[in-house]
Structures are given as structure tokens and as C-alpha cells.
Amino acid sequence: MTFVVFILMLVIRQVIFVNTEDCRTKENLNHEFAVNCDFLKLTLIPSMVRFGLNPIKFISISGDANNLNNIPTIRKTDFQAVSRVTSLVISWSQVKTVEDGAFEKMADLKTLSLTDNELESLNATTFAGIPLLKELDLSGNRICKFDETIFNNIQSISVLNLGDMNLLFIREDFFNSLHSLRVLKLYTNHIKTVSENLILNLPALENLDLSANQLQTIPVEWKPKFQTMKRVHLVENPLHCNCLLAWLQEQPYQTTLDSGSLVCNGPQKLRYSSFLNVPDRDFVCIPPKVLHCEQSTYSVGVNQQLSIVCEYGGDPVPEIKWTRPDGQVYDGRNTSEGGYHVAENGTLLIYRVLMSDNGLWKVTAYNQTTSDNMLINVIVRKAERTEPQTIPPIFKPEDCNFIHNEAAISSTVPVIKISKILEKGSPKADVATAGIDMGNIYWVLLAAIASAAGAMVGLLCLLIMFCKRNKKPNRSNQIRAFEHDI
Ligand SMILES: *[C@@H]1O[C@H](CO)[C@@H](O)[C@H](O)[C@H]1NC(C)=O
Ligand SMILES: *[C@@H]1O[C@H](CO)[C@@H](O)[C@H](O)[C@H]1NC(C)=O
Ligand SMILES: *[C@@H]1O[C@H](CO)[C@@H](O)[C@H](O)[C@H]1NC(C)=O
Ligand SMILES: *[C@@H]1O[C@H](CO)[C@@H](O)[C@H](O)[C@H]1NC(C)=O
Questions:
Q1: What CA–CA distance (Å, rounded) separates 82 from 47?
Q2: TM segments (predicted)?
């Protein structure tokens, strides 16, 4: 019997401990043990029982970019026997999943680092049973999904690293339960905006790292918070140096902030300027303005599509809203409602124009304090008049002027000819002595041609007036043809 057990143990040992041979162990002065299994290219979490050491306080199972472990799952059974561990590191190990409650037997766990893995999802149950956890490092897990429950079981953490996790946006109340949070690292993500409330409810916060994100501005509401904090990192953000960011340049923040390394990304004239070198007066805002719209009047058949394009000015870039003649409002860039879309660039798109769209539309560029607007007339034509869409452009007064000028030019041609004849055929003396009659003939000829040309111009303009009044497509075509003949 004992022999069988012995054989069995040998087999188990062979199977389970096969790749744990090179873990090193170390004892400290307090007779606590550390197990170090770094750089072993492991495929399993080594069994800790095997070391027979007590108590094991520190475990490290790690590699680096060139020495990855391949441990797809941290199992619930992996750490059953090591209840005294206070620090656990499993990094560079291609971990994809952590079984629910995987750490729950390590009730003393204070530090947990799972950096540079491929964690796919985390939730409250991942961290069940480790309520004393103080430091959590999840950085470098770039495809990890988690929700607002993630901290439910670890509310006393004081150091949290969510750097390099491809985060786009963080809910304003995401950290609210973390009353002991002292250090918050969110570097190297893609965060574009931060809510004013994101950090205001974190009484213990001392150190915030938001470097290498996409932030253009920092809420002025953070001002009092920054006064109590020790360190704030904002480098490598595309900071927009306008009036909203001027507060950040004030003296008290320069020691807290890495302001010596901050660079303005905008507005254009301040681009690449060192933050500290920009004078106060250059941190300016420009009020919202509707600069101009492509047309002031649109004429469109019912059920047709209409887009109204305007240009807007202002720094910061203003919000845009459109008000329908009946008062209905379409508010905000890149928003849709019914058949109406306000594009990111502020353009209004109406997919199918209704009779109720007829009238004066108002476009407003605004921020919280000021606004500017412009009215645009939309004329909605009834269904039977959808054809006119294809009418060639109607003559404008300038067109008439143009034709008139051309006629005038062509009428000068004969005049030039006549003067040439005069010059060539008869020197002044000849005309004076022998050719008074000749001279008269030339003048009569000149007058006749000039009046003919004048008559033609007159006729032409009459015809144009006629065509303008009738606005018939065929007519205007004729006039175009006539114009060519001239
Ligand atoms: C947490 O995630 C695991 C899978 O990773 C899932 O099985 C479990 O139901 C989730 N728990 C909660 C509370 O969402
Ligand atoms: C709105 O624009 C005005 C004028 O540029 C500016 O002074 C003000 O700070 C802006 N308000 C906000 C909240 O952006
Ligand atoms: C516009 O909004 C849609 C969803 O509402 C979103 O997918 C898209 O990325 C937004 N586009 C821009 C330019 O913000
Ligand atoms: C604005 O966006 C719309 C829809 O995305 C596009 O059709 C239009 O050409 C854009 N206009 C300008 C002026 O960029």
C-alpha cells in the first residue's frame, strides 16, 4: 500500500512539478520565504506545496518581452495552499483568464501585479477574498474588458495602475469607492476627456499620472485638488493652450506638475511652444461664431435630401445646434434624431425634407456662456415641382453685364478697322485737301455699325430680361446659344 502511494506521488511529482525545478527560494530575517520563478518560460503556475516552506510570503512568476511564459489561465486551485502570501507577481505570462476566486485563499494579499499579460476580462469575482489588497497593477493588458464592479471586493487599494490598457474613456464615478487611493496611473491610454468628478471624490489622492493620453484640456475644477496633491503627470498630451487651460500655468502648480516638460499642441500659433514660455495673455479663447453658410436660401422639393453647410469659428471649438422653423431643436455635433443629422463638422443633413421644414432655420454655435446664430431660409416646394432640380443655372445680373461687355468689345473691332483704313489709305494731308467726302463716308459707316452693335446689345438684354422673367429652361438654352453666335 505505502509502495503504491509512493509510486503515485512520484508520478504526480513528475507531472505537476516538471517545470518548476528552477524556481529559487529565499528566506528573509523574519523567516519568511520568497519563491522566485522568473525567466523559466513556464506553461503552468508551479505548485507551491512542493517547496514545503512556511510561510511563503512573496511569489514572483515573471518574464520579459523576450522570455514570455505561456500560462493561459490562472486557476482557482493554483494558490490554495499558500494562505500567507502578501505579494504576488504574474507578469509577461500571456495570461488570458483568471478563474473566479483564483486569489481568494490568500486573504493577506497586499500586492498583486498582473502586468503585461493578455487578460480578456475582469470583474468583482476575480478579486474575491482579498479585501486587504493595497496595490493592484494591471498595466500592459491591452485587450482587457472590465466594468464598474471591478473594485467591489478590493476597496482599500491605495495604488492602482491601469497604464497602457487601451482605455478610451473613464466614467466619472469609476474610482469613487476607492477612498484610500493615493496613486492612480492611467498613462499611455487614449483618454480624450476627463470628467471634473473623476478625481474630486478621492480624498487620499496624491499622485496622478495621465501622461501620454489624448487630453486637450484639464478641467479647471481640478484646481483645488491639484493644490493638495504631490505629483501630477500630464506630458505627452495634445494640450490646447487657450483660456480654459490658463490656470494650469499659475505658480502653485508648477512644482506639482511636470509643467517644465509640457508643450502646447494648439492653437496653431502656439504649437510646440513650451507651456511655461507662453505668456498669460496668449492663453485666449475666441467666442463661438457662425462665420458663414454656403447659401442663405435653399429651395428644395419635398421628400428630397438637403444638407446645409456652414462654417464656424471659436476656440474652444463650439457646439452646434439647429432649430427647425417650428422650434424643434437638433443639438450637438454627430447626433441624429429622426431624419435629421448634425454632422461632426456642424452640417445639417435632412434625409427627406418635409413641408414642416419650410421656413427660417436657425443655426447656433455656442458654449456654456455665449452663442452666435444665423438664419437660413428653406423653401420647400410641393411634390409636382421636383423637375426644376435639373434646370440649368438661371442668368444672374452679372451674366448680363458680361454679355454686354463682350458686345461692346466686338463693336470696337470695326472701329479699329476704320481707323486703320483712315491711317493707311489717306495721310492727314490727303484727307484735308482731297477727301472731305471720304471722311464723311467713314464716319457714317462707323455710326451705322456702332448703332447696329448697340441695337444688338439692347436686343440681347431685352431677351435676357424676358428669359429671366419667364425662367423657362428652353428659353434660357436659346439665349445661351444666341450668346455663342455673338
Ligand atoms: C465574472 O467573469 C466571469 C468570466 O470571466 C464570469 O464567469 C462571471 O459570471 C462574472 N461574474 C460577474 C459577477 O459578472
Ligand atoms: C465661451 O466663450 C467665451 C468667449 O470666448 C469664453 O470667454 C468662455 O470662457 C467660454 N466658455 C466656456 C465654458 O468655454
Ligand atoms: C459619431 O457617433 C457615432 C455613434 O453615435 C460613433 O460611432 C462615431 O465614432 C462618432 N463619430 C465621431 C467623428 O465622433
Ligand atoms: C461635413 O460633413 C458632411 C457629412 O459628414 C459632409 O457631407 C460635408 O461635406 C462636410 N462639410 C464640410 C464643409 O466639411
A1: 10
A2: 441-466
